Amino acid sequence: MFEPVLLKNVDVHDGHLLATYEAGGGYQALAKVLRQDTPDEVIDLVKQSNLRGRGGAGFPTGMKWSFVPKRVDKPKYLCCNADEGEPGTFKDRIIMERDPHQLIEGLAVSAYAIGAEVAYVYIRGEYVTAIRRLEQAIAEASAKGYLGRRILGSDFNFTVHIHRGAGAYICGEETAMLESLEGKRAQPRLKPPFPAVAGLYASPTVINNVETLVCVPHIVVRGADWFRGIGPDRSPGPKLYCLSGQVRKPGLYELPMGISLRELVEEHAGGPLPGRKIKAVIPGGVSAPVIPERGMDVGMDFDSLAAAGSMLGSAGVIVIDDATCMVKVATRIIEFFHHESCGKCTPCREGLNWVVKVLRRIEAGEGAPGDPEQLEKLCKGIFGNTFCALGDGAAMGLRAALVHFRDEFSAHIEERRCPFH
Questions:
Q1: Is residue 195 part of a domain?
Q2: Would residue 408 count as lying in a domain?
Q3: What is the mean pLDDT of the chain?
Q4: 34 vs 41: CA distance, rounded Å
Q5: Torsion over CA of 248, 91, 281 and 390, rounded to 10 degrees?
Q6: How far is the C-alpha of 35 from the C-alpha of 352, rounded, in Å?
Q7: What's the whole-number mean pLDDT along residues 325-345?
Q8: What tens digit of pLDDT does each residue of 361-387 get?
Q9: Each residue of 257-284: pLDDT tens digit?
Q10: Taking a C-beta distance cutoff of 8 angstroms, is the pair 257, 230 a contact?
């Protein structure tokens, strides 16, 4: 039977305190690597585990760490992307509010591996409780010798700083986040150079998501084989799934990577609301293309969802029932992307503006017969033509809605009204 490890303290009384974390074996991973492992050995261990980034891209974490040059005349930095702006996603917030020391230990072990002495946690400013808990945890860890100079009697020095974001979705993109950290306007950088070579302040930088970092101490303590023994070999490990939308038991679930989307929604989350049927599910936050009910037997891992024409993303699972208008859903999502576009790329800035106008017209019962084809043409102009993945996510999501629910777009146009409202 699967035993949760990432969420084991979230429902424990005072789970955010250092004493509680230590009682459950906290900071043993940090002590272990400082006592007996070299940085390269830690990187090799994470490579062997095949931990893939939990922020959405799914890039192998150990490989990302290995890209950092060994000998440079600049400081190295570790950045934690805790902005969590993807609608439908709340896993990182829960960890930071209820088990912040798990993140701090993950930061410390990861920083030791890449040779960094400073880490920045870029957290969305609305996460007031999470910020307060992290500040308290940093103070506790510093007082106990888990942060600061000569940690646990070793030669390792490490400090953590919190940087509050200002509510920009674009800062979930790693280079836009770096621009914001440097006090500049948050817009994606052209790559290469990649952050591992020239990131924060033009210095070697590793950027990892909260969930990625909290996996690291468990890999150190339990081993790479334990991690690889959970879920599919190409996408192993425990995974946090955020369930929301029109479902009986919304919430945060820790389950093996690769669990069936149908099992996740119908068994763990209790299925649709009384009297309703599931129409579709967005499996990975609103950037992920929607999957119709008939496709729900797909595994919730990077490769299976990619093969099904969608993506795991942030694992923000949004359930949509049969009383919901998919044109309205598509309109709301594209309105979000249009509002959050940084405006740097013309296809994204102008294309999404035009897409919103067409979708609003269709939803209002004023659509024209050629509007679905016009939307497809606009998606083609946006996809693959922008600095970052914001435009791609918007285009892929709308394309999927047009493919799977074309009849609803046609009904709006033919009946000159929304059939659902």
A1: yes
A2: yes
A3: 96
A4: 11
A5: 150
A6: 53
A7: 96
A8: 999 999 999 999 999 999 999 999 998
A9: 999 999 999 999 999 999 999 999 999 9
A10: yes
3 is a domain residue: no
- What is the number of domains present in the chain? 3
What pLDDT, on a 0 to 100 scale, did the predictor assign at position 2?
85
- pLDDT bin (cut points 50, 70, 90) of residue 57 is confident
**In 3D, which of 230, 295, 290 has the Cα closest to residue 262?**
295
**Spatial CA neighbour of 264 closest among 229, 298, 294:** 298
- The CATH number of residue 244's host domain is 3.10.20.600
Q: Does residue 138 contact residue 96 with C-beta atoms inside 8 Å?
A: no
Instruction: Identify the pLDDT of residue 1.
Output: 76
Burial of 203 (0-12, 13-18, 19+ CB in 10 A): middle
For 274, the token pair is: 């009384």
Nearest to 11 by CA among 99, 106, 128: 99
Omega before residue 192 within 30° of 0, cis: yes
Verify that 200 and 267 share a domain, yes or no: no
Q: What token pair was written down for 220?
A: 């150190």
Write out the DSSP string of 50-81.
T-B-TTTT--BHHHHHHTS-SS-SS--EEEEE
The Cα–Cα gap between 245 and 221 comes to: 36
Quickly tell me which residue has 């029932």 as its tokens: 321
Q: Are 250 and 320 in contact (CB under 8 A)?
A: no
Q: Which helix (H) or strand (E) holds 317?
A: strand 316-321
Distance CA 333, CA 50 (A): 33
Same structural domain for residues 250 and 271? Answer: yes
Per-residue model confidence as pLDDT tens digits over 16-32 = 999 999 999 999 999 99
